[in-house]
Amino acid sequence: MSELRPDRRTVLAGSMAAAGTLLTAATGTSASAAEGAATSAGVPDTGTHVVTLGTAAGPAVRSPRQGIATAVVVDGNLYVVDTGLGVVRQIAEAELPTNRLRAILLTHLHSDHIAELPAMLLYNWGPQVDGFTEPFEVVGPAGAGALPKGYRPAVSPPTPGTREVVNNILDSYAYDVNIRISDEGRPPLDDLVRPREIQLPGGLSAGPRSRLAPEMEPIEVYSDDRVRVLAALVNHPPVFPSYGYRIETPDGVIALSGDTTEHPNVVTLARDADVLVHESVYLDYYRKLGKSADFIDHLSGSHTDPAGTGRVAAKAGVGHLVLSHLAGVATDEQWTAPVRKKYGGRVTVANDGQVFSL
Ligand SMILES: [Zn+2]
Ligand SMILES: [Zn+2]
């Protein structure tokens, strides 16, 4: 499942880079978008590795990139952050060890982050598909408690948290689950999937109609014998709560911004991290599409432009900034030029299936 195949990976990476260079030179279009469909399979079952499974933002298909999802593999144990469209196929193509799935971490409950959570649970379930057979946690936001002021609840209950999301998935697929447990001998799915909602510190003044992301010290939300996961609120109006994560492993630290504007809590989460996976938006792409000023304001008010990611990475002192959850299509140079003015470290525009080893 996770054999080391460095030769193939090296070859793939080399051919991808060459293809991207040729394409950019020939057409002037986005190398990063073109490369987004490529994958590199297999990670070693020792050490810590980050795999940018899917790198696209939003519930929209605008490029070959798959929906947002990032894997962290630590000594052959699998942790998955967000489950956007395509995550199941991307995990399979990267040959990640779903039989050693330890946790799924959800940053927030926007659909582009959880669209494929049902398939993640149902397509990796049991020894029949070489999937999970042991319990694992689905860590994510608790219910918001209320919609933002003035919002109309079209669907009720209006603000489910991670526990309800998971339970509702199991309820929706009850027939399949019940059939397969008896018919195929699969382990009881409801025993294996364990939702855990993040509880904010009692003294923290935050809420859906007040402060979405006050500055805070990260709180521990998950731990096992290999990793410790910390979370902090990030600023992604109008969503509450929206989290970023810090994953500490024996080999180093990975931080993930989640969906956010440029925010001090991301700096705290990413302090001295080896890798920071940060979201970004390329606003000129939307301006050229003729999107309304309101839509552009929404994007700039809830996401981070490339220069902002550079400032965060510089303040946090991270070793490697990886841009993902890319909103808009641009060339690698267009994404990274504003970053380099703010941050002198290593920066990469992630491709789908790209592996970053600590
Ligand atoms: Zn998103
Ligand atoms: Zn979002």
From TrEMBL:
Residue ranges of domain Metallo-beta-lactamase in the record: 65-120
PROSITE patterns: TAT
Organism domain of life: Bacteria
Alphabetical list of Pfam families matching this protein: Lactamase_B (PF00753)
GO MF: 3'-tRNA processing endoribonuclease activity
InterPro entries associated with the record: AtsA-like_MBL-fold (IPR044094), Metallo-B-lactamas (IPR001279), RibonucZ/Hydroxyglut_hydro (IPR036866), TAT_signal (IPR006311)
Keywords: Endonuclease, Hydrolase, Nuclease, Signal
Keyword Signal: yes
Signal peptide, first to last residue: 1-33
PANTHER family: ZINC PHOSPHODIESTERASE ELAC PROTEIN 1
Designated name of the protein: Ribonuclease BN (tRNA processing enzyme)
Organism in which the protein naturally occurs: Haloactinomyces albus
Species lineage: Bacteria, Bacillati, Actinomycetota, Actinomycetes, Actinopolysporales
